[in-house]
Design brief:
With about 250 residues, the chain is α/β, with parallel strands linked by helices. Helices cover about 50% and strands about 10% of the residues.
Amino acid sequence: MKLQPILHRLIVAVAAFALKLSAAEPPNSTVEPIAIFQKETRVLFQGDSITDGNRGRSADPNHILGHGYQFIIAAKFGAAFAEKNLTFLNRGVSGNTVVDLEKRWQKDVLDLQPDVLSILIGVNDNSHAVPMDQYEQIYDGLLTATKAANPKVRLVLCEPFTLPIAGKKEPYEPWRAGIKQRQEIVAKLAKKHGAALVRFQAAFDAACERAPAEHWIWDAVHPTYSGHQLMAAEWERTVREFWKEK
């Protein structure tokens, strides 16, 4: 009995079988699903310029989400779970405060009927000295209205953040103190409304142990592309962990 031809045929058969499995495997099969991303889930990102990301205002799908953390999240899960037909929307507007959000909440949130609503707001409130009590009161009201319109909505509250960049936000400490107060308000509201809380500040602070602040945020407020990837990863980690049992 000649073993060499038999071994050759066996190797060829195994290789062909492996190739078939590889071809049948989805390219993003290594992406773990997030429990709240069910079939037809609508995910809405809301906020200021960090979320706006210079998004398009037309139906052009190449630019509709803008650039940034929201695009990274949508691209990853939209491709990995195409069969779920997930919809990702962005209604961030550059320069917005909670006062501005309130004015457009019906059109840019409630009318869109999101299943998951992610909000990042607070940096401009700090720049424009929106009083802390007003910031909390309006923010609280927006969340209450959203839950009244859809009691099943999943809320993701993202804390505002900052890093000390040379020549920016001088003096830095008073600026940072105001951001910290708004972070505490966001944490309070997340607890009150049963929302996932994305702690971006801790993620950026930890990242600064690997590279300077300028690598992550270029002007004390707006992230670089590396910073946006950091945000996307922290958002995903938080949301996945918060709803891991659901």
